[in-house]
Amino acid sequence: MTTASEPDWREANRAMWDERVPIHAASAFYDHEAFLAGKDTVAGFQADEVGDVTGKSLVHLQCHMGQDTLSWARRGAARVVGLDFSEPAVEVARGLAAGLGFAPERAAFTAADVYDAREALGGEVFDVVYTGIGALCWLPDIERWAEVASSLVAPGGFLYLAEFHPLSNVLDWNTGTRFERDYLGREPVVLDEPGTYVDFRAETERNLSYEWNHAIGAVVSALAAHGLRLEFLHEFDWTLFQQFGTLERDGEAYRQPEGTPKAPLMYTLKASRT
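Structure (tokenized):
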């Protein structure tokens, strides 16, 4: 682990994501053909917890190629905005929106760092601020994130976060039963590995990346400090990918085998502005 200045980590992470966008766009994992044909990428548990979005405005922070963003539009949101710091990802998202027949007034995408979202979106506020999954780990300062994210929540609106549990990020990658890293640590995990989660064998050159773990207490406290009221915090003993070697497929989820000590693997929260 090592420290990194803001320009260093930001540019390394952006370069890493930019290179992987065309790999992701062509992958069976994202399956753009099925998406354009009607596939909904919002997970059922998220749809249930967010509730009906008909007629609402929604912003999706760190949206990558925008499939979840556009799925909320399909679910009836009156206006959706996706924001991501990768220009190539935003271009793909705009292409998907056009392919679905959404005008920019209905589904717009902005290339900007999430820390600059308030300015990049011109001070607009939204009924729903949606973020996850696998987004917060790319940010070093959770208080700064909470300040920006909460400023986008309209009166009567809420922020919804679905994320991998920070405890799962510090367990061993083989069994998920032993601590290997510091849960409360503030230093980044620095990786320099080729490939990507849609193709671990992909040949890539921009491989340096920085990730941070944010304890749940830090996330909740940061949101509360910026005027949002916690409605719920749910923890789950399943996840959406093969995070540990021992996990077993259970429908759309992955769980530890029976008899294995179970740690929380994902969490969701909803925080509202009155």
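The two ends are 41 Å apart (CA to CA). Residues 6-25 form the longest helix (20 residues).
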